[in-house]
Structure formats: C-alpha cells, structure tokens
Amino acid sequence: MDxxxxxxxxxxxxxxxxxxxxxxxxxxxxxxxxxxxVGNLPICTEARLNSNKPSGxxxxxxxxxxQSALSIYQLKTDVIEQLQPTHIxxxxxxxxxxxxxxxxxxAVASLISSQPQIIxxxxxxxxxxxxxxxRVARVLDVPCEATLQQLQGRVRKIVSQTETLSEDNRxxxxxxxxxxxxxxxxxxxxxxxxxxxxxxLLGKKGEHSPYLIWxxxxxxxxxxxxxxxxxxxLERTRQESQVLTGHPDWNNLKAVKQGKVFITxxxxxxxxxxxxxxxxxxxxxxIIHPDGFNFGHQGKAWQPLG
Length: 306
Hints:
Number of strands: 12
Distance between the termini: 55 Å
Number of helices: 12
Shape: globular
Radius of gyration: 20 Å
Strand content: 15-25%
Largest sheet: 6 strands, mixed
C-alpha cells in the first residue's frame, strides 16, 4: 500500500524529509515551512491565534485559549478527509506547539474514513528526538541508521571539543524563549547549552520552559544571553527584544555590559525538536565559544543584538 503521510508539526515534517519520505507527504500544518517544497502541500490546520500581535498579547491569548479548553490550533478535517492519509504525525508534548493529541484522536476516530495510523511524538531531550526519528522510521518501514549516524556524528564532533573544558571556561548562559512575559528555555535547550560548552541557568533539562520575573534574571546575571522566542524568525526576534532593552535593569546585566547578547531564529532552529536541533547545537557552540567553532550560521541563524 502506498503511504500517504500528513504532518501536523514542523519538526515531524523535517523528520519525514530526513528519512527520505518527502514523496509520501500529502499534507502539512500551517506552520510547516521547511524544506521549501512543503509550501506547495495542502494545509491541514489553522491557528486561532494572531501571531502578529505583540508578545504580551499573544501570551494572554494562549492562556485564555488553554483555560477555556480550546486547542490553540484547529484541524481542517475536510481537507484531511480529501487527502485520505494512511498516517498522521502529531505530538503530545505541548498544546502551544501544535494541534493537541486528543483533538487529532477525536477527529481521526469520527471523521477521517481512511482511519490513518497516528504517530505521536513527545520529545523533551535530544535522545528522545533520536527515539522519535527511530519510531517514525519503524512505523513507516524505512531505514534510519544512516540518518541518525550522520546527526549524532555532528553532535559528537562538538562534544568531543567541549567536554574537556574547565569550569572556568564554561560561561553561564540564559536562553530566553519569550520576552513578554519573560520565559526561560527548558526541554532540550539546557542540554544543548551544556553540550556547546556553557552552563545553563533558569531552565531545567527535560522540563517545560519556566516563566521568569526580572529579579530572577538580574540575580542570575549570566555572562551570555541568547534570545530565541518560540515561532519567531531573526527579524521578529530583533523587534521583540526591544521589550528587554527598554527595561530599566537591562543595562546592569553582565552579558549586556560585555556585549554578549545574541538573537536567533528560534522558529527555524531551537523550537523544533527534529534534525535541525543539531544545527541549533552548532549555533550555540559558535555563540558561546567563537574561537573554537565556526559552522557558518552567523548572520543567517543568529546575530549579536548590538
């Protein structure tokens, strides 16, 4: 039987591509934008949020939608029914990242006559991303060893350089996943910071991203600040950073005084638990240890805020 895959998650689309299954992909979410050719596929979800609003308003809208038990995204079940998928890849990790798993289950059970198999991803750490790639490959009956070897080889190349660093050569790093209200970065980000030769503060490995107050950031006083708002590209991140730079305590921070504040394309890299987390690790290595690493990401994927 020919496979017909719908991906409801940007990271899942990237996993499908890494496994060489692009020809079987028949539909995508409204946020799937990589690789470029997915732009031609039918869109199977829509947002209930207006992402053009300022950060503070987006956060308020997210909270009110979650409290009213409405998913932030809704499924276009008519489109999915027309596509007659054999498999749908979704996630059970974060209701702010994609269509919620119960919504997909309900729609598939009652509305989609092709009765597709649901593959649900739930990664919080890098090893769980590898496990997700393996699971997708197993269900879709394709090999994944070469893909994983290549990705893990790139990771090992960096870690072999950073694991010998002394404590003194590991700067303290705060990654910010949202600017208003302030949020640290959790899940796989603290782990990537460690691998890149930094000491992560204000975010715990494998745990959801925490809301922060300014006093907490001031007390942590990191040597490096990396801004990576969820879902925003480099230009939008620069705009959203004005909330930070306008704060009265901003210029007192060590990272600001030393010119060690950086903006990134969080949407393309850090926010997606798929193959490009390896690129994200390379970006962090370039930022934290510029003398030791140069993968050519500067300017495209990250810049000094300066």
